[in-house]
Structure formats: structure tokens, C-alpha cells
Amino acid sequence: MNEKLMVEVQGLSHWFGIGAMRRQVLQSIALQIAPGEVVLLSGPSGCGKTTLLTLIGALRTVQEGDVCVFGHQLRGSDRRLRQQLRCHIGMIIQGHNLLRCLTAEQNVQMGADLLPGLSYRARRDQARYWLRAVGLDDHLSKLPHDLSGGQKQRVAIARALAAQPQLLLADEPTAALDSVTGREVVELLQRLAREQSCAVLMVTHDPRIVDLADRLVQMEDGRLISSLG
Ligand SMILES: Nc1ncnc2c1ncn2[C@@H]1O[C@H](COP(=O)(O)OP(=O)(O)OP(=O)(O)O)[C@@H](O)[C@H]1O
């Protein structure tokens, strides 16, 4: 285990289903991500990208292989450790996952609520800062159903960033965004990676943001087939 790495995956395999329906979706994956590194993960639909992301994000039980996050082994880990680690992992998932009864500002403030020792006002200021950073300062008090798909995606991104994660896992974060906004958002993620030594692993099919990555990793049929630095 290398403690200087944010993520160290070795020999990771994963199966879904039981009995005759059991099917292997990840095959002996190896992946390392250093602090401040932005890694893009791409590959055909169904090849296992989201499964890999959720395993690294401590949202699934590791069946076989090593998954070390911030130097902690997830295989065989208890629920408390996974909960503690998740406080430092930002997730931007497909479908936004915003709370419908909360405004954009309140949704983002939930991210800042994970930071210890901040007053209500400081957490609110954090929420406003990140909403401004994703270009939504005019939409603070809107509920999710009054926002477009791209705006909801930006609120979800602001919420993840407001928690100042050490590791950010993003599943197609630019999918609902136009090319200018998509690039701006990824530039923001890149800046966060640099300034806060946060590691970023992003699933994307978006060729417009490839140049913003430190490394491109390609996946096919549950295997990593290439890694270009
Ligand atoms: N909970 C589950 N139960 C059973 N099979 C699943 C489950 N989740 C995913 N799978 C299957 O595992 C395989 C990998 O799915 P995964 O969502 O990781 O792929 P993906 O590369 O992220 O696809 P996409 O680009 O379409 O989001 C697919 O064949 C999928 O149908």
C-alpha cells in the first residue's frame, strides 16, 4: 500500500447476480491516482465504469482484490470506516440526486455541512461561492424542478465541491451541459484538484474535455485496456 496515493486499486474483480445468472463485470483492474491528478475514464456502455466508480467511492462491497482509498483498505472494511471515508469523497452521479424540497443554495449547503467547525453563515457563504463558480448566482433560491437539466447538474457539482473533498468521483458530469459550460465546469474541477491536492476520477465520453486530463484510461469488457499520460 502506497500512502502517498489517493486511490490504489489492484486485482479488483467484481460480479453481479447469483447462480447461473452470476456475471463478471470487472476483471483484475489496477489503477492508481495521485493527489492533484485528473484522470478521465471512458469506454463503451456497460463495460463497468460506474461499478468501478461506486467501488472506489465505498458505496459497494469489494468482493475480490484491493481497493485502498487515502491508504485505507476497503476490502473487509467495516461500515464506520466506509462512512468516514465517504465524508472526504465527493460524488457527482447521474441523475443529480438533489433534494426536491430544498433550494439550490440549501442543496449545496448540505455539502458544506460536512465541513467541521463552520458557522451557519460560513456554510451559506461556501454554498454561494460554489454556486457562483458554476454560474448559478441568479438561481440561489430556485427549487430543482424550476431548473433545467444542465442547471441541476451544476448544483450537484457545486454541492460536491462545497464539501472540499480529497477525492472527487464524477459520472459523466458534463453530459447535460453545453460545450462552454461543460468545459468551464471541468476547468473548475481541475483547479480544485490543483489547489486542494484533490484527486479526480471522471467517467466521460466528452471529447471536448480530454485535453484537461492528466491521464486517460480506457476500459473495455470490465478490463482497463490502456492508460495514456
Ligand atoms: N446492480 C446490478 N445488478 C446486476 N447487474 C448490474 C448492476 N449494475 C450494473 N450491472 C451490469 O454490470 C455491467 C456494468 O455496468 P456499469 O453500469 O458499471 O457500466 P458502465 O460502463 O458504467 O455503463 P454506462 O456507460 O452505460 O453507464 C452492465 O452489464 C450492467 O448491466
Protein model, in words:
Keywords: ATP-binding, Hydrolase, Nucleotide-binding, Transport. One of its GO terms (molecular function) is transmembrane transporter activity. Helix content is 31%, strand content 26%. The chain has a domain at 7-88 and 165-228: Rossmann fold (3-Layer(aba) Sandwich). A hairpin with a 2-residue loop joins strand 9 and strand 10 (223-228). Helix 3 (104-112) packs across helix 4 (120-133) and helix 3 (104-112) runs parallel beside helix 5. The two termini are 22 Å apart. The protein is an alpha/beta fold and 229 residues long. Strands 6-7-8-3-9-10 form a 6-stranded mixed β-sheet, with helices on both faces. It is built from 6 helices and 10 strands; from the N terminus they run E-E-E-H-E-E-H-E-H-H-H-E-H-E-E-E. The chain binds adenosine-5'-triphosphate.
Summarize this entry quickly.
The protein has 229 residues and is an alpha/beta fold. It has helices at residues 49-56, 79-86, 104-112, 120-133, 149-162, 179-196, and strands spanning 7-16, 23-33, 38-42, 64-69, 72-73, 89-92, 167-171, 199-203, 215-220, 223-228. The protein has a domain at 7-88 and 165-228: Rossmann fold (3-Layer(aba) Sandwich).
Total helices: the number is 6
What fraction, in percent, of the residue positions are helical? 25-40%
Report the CATH C-level class of the domain at 7-88 and 165-228.
Alpha Beta
Indicate the radius of gyration in whole angstroms: 17 Å
Structural class: alpha/beta
Mean of the pLDDT scores?
Answer: 91
Q: Which architecture of the domain at 7-88 and 165-228 does the CATH hierarchy give at level 2?
A: 3-Layer(aba) Sandwich
Largest β-sheet summary:
6 strands, mixed
Enzyme class: hydrolase
EC number: 3.6.3.27, 3.6.3.30, 3.6.3.32
Organism: Prochlorococcus marinus (strain MIT 9303)
GO molecular function: ATP binding; ATP hydrolysis activity; transmembrane transporter activity
